[in-house]
């Protein structure tokens, strides 16, 4: 199956907030979209009421979107497969899904996390579990808060694939009246920008929860970007990617918006809630709460200094309080800004 540039069948695997919102983008761009939902009742509700009541209540889904609980049906005839589950579940899911993926279909990750244990990025997990080469693996990442995208508020994003011609065809497949994708060949930079901004979002949320203002959050955002760029460039990313939509753009959206689950998770921690209480209060994923640990380990394995990932991981693991984290940031050994 060869990737077309105008329209075609797209399978979106994962009917949470982002899988459903991105399905709207794809349908608006002219694709025939089938969303796979883990729970049968979610698929039924999308087909019958044109709404995903659990993850995107109040948003009418366009006619170009159908839903199913049957993954084989979703994948049949799809030349683009969009992966939109929580990062830590991807490997186990792909083990089941891979036999049904059409030969040559392009696999697109929307996920913003790094796998615990293996420290693999999502594109690496996809390659290992499906055998797809880099020309069949892409990432879409940028400042794309699901609820705003679902309301068709204008936004831009990055479509990254090692094969630029594939990135260009995918760009056409998801260019809608409200969604403007740019191409990139920097898969590593886009993935690490997306995963790291969640950890910085947690730290900013903690600062907000503690009652601190814009100096504190701007300092965390700026040093967070430096930390992200330090690790990403060590792993081969183009530094300019981190200054772009998948780096700075997404960092700003996440750290500024009350819609961000990661920022909200951090804010609750700053207000004194426990990690267990926060997990119990929402069914939605806050990727940074897991990826703080994998990014910390990834940075350590490459000898990269990652104080924000380290401190956030310590808070999430209960080894530090949020106030101790802030005190420790200020008390660290002093250094030059550009070191
Ligand atoms: N929500 C947003 O604004 C954005 C989210 N993302 C990323 O997209 C990915 C998915 O996030 P959301 O859709 O927002 O999460 P969500 O929490 O809203 O939905 C997750 C979906 O995955 C399903 N799921 C949970 N565990 C599963 C498992 N073990 N196997 C299969 N499916 C499972 C859930 O039923 C749900 O449909 C994350 O990596 C997130 O960082 C990226 C850009 C924007
Ligand atoms: O990735 C996102 C926006 O680009 C969504 O952020 P949260 O997962 O923190 O809600």
Automatic annotation (TrEMBL):
* Enzyme class (EC, first level): oxidoreductase
Q: Name one GO molecular function term.
A: glycerol-3-phosphate dehydrogenase [NAD(P)+] activity
Which reaction is catalysed here? Answer: sn-glycerol 3-phosphate + NAD(+) = dihydroxyacetone phosphate + NADH + H(+); sn-glycerol 3-phosphate + NADP(+) = dihydroxyacetone phosphate + NADPH + H(+)
What pathway, per the record? Membrane lipid metabolism; glycerophospholipid metabolism
Q: Where does NADPH bind?
A: 17-18, 38-39, 55, 112, 146, 261, 285, 287
Q: What is its EC number?
A: 1.1.1.94
- Swiss-Prot/TrEMBL keywords: Cytoplasm, Lipid biosynthesis, Lipid metabolism, NAD, NADP, Nucleotide-binding, Oxidoreductase, Phospholipid biosynthesis, Phospholipid metabolism
Please verify whether the record's keywords include NADP. yes
Q: Which residues form the Glycerol-3-phosphate dehydrogenase NAD-dependent C-terminal domain?
A: 186-326
Q: Which residues form the active site?
A: 197 (proton acceptor)
Q: Where in the cell is it found?
A: Cytoplasm
**Glycerol-3-phosphate dehydrogenase NAD-dependent N-terminal domain ranges (all copies):** 9-166
Identify the residues that bind sn-glycerol 3-phosphate: 112, 142, 197, 250, 260-262
Which PANTHER family does the record associate with it? GLYCEROL-3-PHOSPHATE DEHYDROGENASE, GLYCEROL-3-PHOSPHATE DEHYDROGENASE [NAD(+)] 2, CHLOROPLASTIC
The entry assigns this protein to a family as follows: Belongs to the NAD-dependent glycerol-3-phosphate dehydrogenase family.
Role, per record: Catalyzes the reduction of the glycolytic intermediate dihydroxyacetone phosphate (DHAP) to sn-glycerol 3-phosphate (G3P), the key precursor for phospholipid synthesis.
Q: What is this protein called?
A: Glycerol-3-phosphate dehydrogenase [NAD(P)+]
Q: Which organism is it from?
A: Nocardioides kribbensis
């Amino acid at each position: 199956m060869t990737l077309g540039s105008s329209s075609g069948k797209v399978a979106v695997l994962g009917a949470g907030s982002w899988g459903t919102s991105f399905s709207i983008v794809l349908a608006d761009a002219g694709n025939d979209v089938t969303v796979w939902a883990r729970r049968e009742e979610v698929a039924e509700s999308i087909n019958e009421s044109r709404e995903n009541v659990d993850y995107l209540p109040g948003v009418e889904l366009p006619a170009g979107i159908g839903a199913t609980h049957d993954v084989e049906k979703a994948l049949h005839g799809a030349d683009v497969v969009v992966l939109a589950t929580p990062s830590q579940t991807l490997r186990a899911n792909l083990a089941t899904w891979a036999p049904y993926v059409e030969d040559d279909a392009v696999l697109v990750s929307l996920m913003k996390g790094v796998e615990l244990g293996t420290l693999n990025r999502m594109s690496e997990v996809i390659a290992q579990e499906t055998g797809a080469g880099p020309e069949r693996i892409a990432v879409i990442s940028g400042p794309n808060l699901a609820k705003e995208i679902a309301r068709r508020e204008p936004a831009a994003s990055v479509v990254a694939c090692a094969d630029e011609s594939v990135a260009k065809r995918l760009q056409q497949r998801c260019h809608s009246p409200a969604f403007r994708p740019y191409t990139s060949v920097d898969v590593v930079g886009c993935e690490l920008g997306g995963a790291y901004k969640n950890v910085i979002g947690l730290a900013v949320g903690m600062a907000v929860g503690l009652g601190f203002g814009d100096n504190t959050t701007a300092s965390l955002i700026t040093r967070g970007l430096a930390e992200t760029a330090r690790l990403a460039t060590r792993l081969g990313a183009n530094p300019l990617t981190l200054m772009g939509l998948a780096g700075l753009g997404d960092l700003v959206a996440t750290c500024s918006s009350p819609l961000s689950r990661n920022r909200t998770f951090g804010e609750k921690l700053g207000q004194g809630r426990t990690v267990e209480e926060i997990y119990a209060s929402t069914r939605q994923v806050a990727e940074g709460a897991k990826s703080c640990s994998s990014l910390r380990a990834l940075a350590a394995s490459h000898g990269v200094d990652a104080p924000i990932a380290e401190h956030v991981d310590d808070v999430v693991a209960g080894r530090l309080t949020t106030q101790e984290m802030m005190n420790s940031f200020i008390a660290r050994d002093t250094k030059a800004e550009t070191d």
